[in-house]
Amino acid sequence: MAQARSGLTRLGLGAAAAVPLGFLAVFFAWPVAAIIGLGLGRTGVGKTLADPATWDLVAFTLGQAAAATAVALLAGMPVAYLLARCQVRGRGFVRLAITIPFVLPTVVVGLAFRAVLGDAGALGIVLANAFFNVAVVARTVGGLWAHLDRRAEDAARALGASRWRTFLSVTLPALGPAIGSAAAVVFLFCSTAFGVVLILGGSRLRTLETEIYLRTVNLLDLSGAAALSLLQLAAVIAALVIGAVARRRREAQLKLRAAEESLRRPRGGEWFVVAGAALVVLALLVPIFGLLLRSLSTADGWSFDGYRALATGGTQGTLAVSGFEAALNSLRAAGDATLLALVIGLLAAIVLSRVRRRGAGEALDLVLMLPLGVSAVTVGFGYLVTMDALPGDFRTSPLLVPLAQALVVTPLVVRLVLPVLRAVDDRLRQAAATLGAGPFRVWREVDLPLALRSMLAAAGFGFVVALGEFGATSFLARPEAPTLPVAIARLIARPGELNEAMAYAACTLLMVVTGLAVLVIEKLRVGTGEF
């Protein structure tokens, strides 16, 4: 009986794994391979790789990503300490304030920094990318910091070590796995940033991602785009491998520590760290308030003209629909993408939580994370090249946008739900199975109640991420059905004060919806998860 039940469980896991793998094969691997193959089949790839300008592009991409990662680490560490160790009023607001930037659409952040800094060049790109990712550092590092045993630090202090030396010799090495994991994720996000670089860099400053977009859309240089996509893919895989190693070390340390947070009122020099965290939060709020003020500012003074214009298509019919209709398109597409990503991501998380062979689990985890780092432009253009092979004219289907957005959301769902499933005591499952429960009933009675809050949080988190997805959506959204980020980009591209005011008003609308969603997510917050 036990062997039959074990065989049934393995069969069920195999079937569950087939769903996300099949989805990735058809809607990720196939389109990306088609574009790369199409490009490599033409002449010019070697010329692109031999061109010094290509390596200047690589250097700028990696350099700005490294600089933004360093800034995010420096800004996120005091916030991580406050959330992990300090019992102060306003901790909930701090958590909310750092989370909103991470889920804001890239177009919104780009315009917010342009409103505050103007033409800041590379500095603006670095600060905007760091702005996005303070939450990754604070949550990932803070999650481990909250579980570290204070007794090792207290012993070092009792032996005469200063607070700074204790941090460097005891705390920092213990936090190494979390810092490495956060740095790898932040570097991945920054090196593949699209909307921010497109808005703040313009035609002067380009990364691999924006150059792939330029060569694919404007120049139709598929061989050059394919060569750049291969370079980007190599960097992405390297970052994912480093992140996976660091994540495994982080999870191993978490298993050795108590699960309860140890909060206390700050003492002495700790108030300087709290003050540093407060300054970081204030700095994160500046672009948000700058965007809000810019949406109300016109040449004639303060006005709601931009918000009123959302009921129209902009100056001289810039948009085929009104701004409010574009917002409804975004909500529908994001809802469909979230539902799809939740099903696929949950199945993937179940499989990863049950796989006992480390190599197989890590390989599957790496494959699931790839859509976060591969050019969204490559994926979007790949859809247009390959989807006509499916039944019907799938290239014009409204389902393409939710499918592309689900690719981005699914890895985030996995990262939020998987730690909770891995934390479930396997003895509970064994006890339920001993009492005669089948695999599905074990999941329903044991895993589901414990993972439900994280699943709801993942759904809310995925929804706001899909709401602001711009890279692939800009390729796939039909002119008569643009999403709000695509509509904002079109408004910016067309001259006219009303178009610009409408773009900033639309950004503010997206920001408000995102903030409300984050409030709901925080109400459902659980103590594990990477973001």
TrEMBL record:
Keywords of the record: Cell inner membrane, Cell membrane, Membrane, Transmembrane, Transmembrane helix, Transport
Gene Ontology cellular-component terms listed: plasma membrane
Topology class, membrane: Multi-pass membrane protein
A GO biological-process term: transmembrane transport
Domain ABC transmembrane type-1: 58-241, 327-522
Chain segments annotated as coiled-coil in the UniProt record: none
Entry's transmembrane regions: 12-37, 57-84, 96-117, 123-146, 167-200, 220-246, 271-293, 337-355, 367-387, 399-421, 450-468, 501-521
SUPFAM superfamilies reported for this sequence: MetI-like
Domain of life: Bacteria
Transport recorded as keyword: yes
Subcellular location(s) of the protein: Cell inner membrane; Cell membrane
InterPro entries registered for this protein in UniProt: MetI-like (IPR000515), MetI-like_sf (IPR035906)
Chief localisation class: membrane
Endpoints of the signal sequence: none
Family: Belongs to the binding-protein-dependent transport system permease family.
Annotated protein name in UniProt: Thiamine transport system permease protein
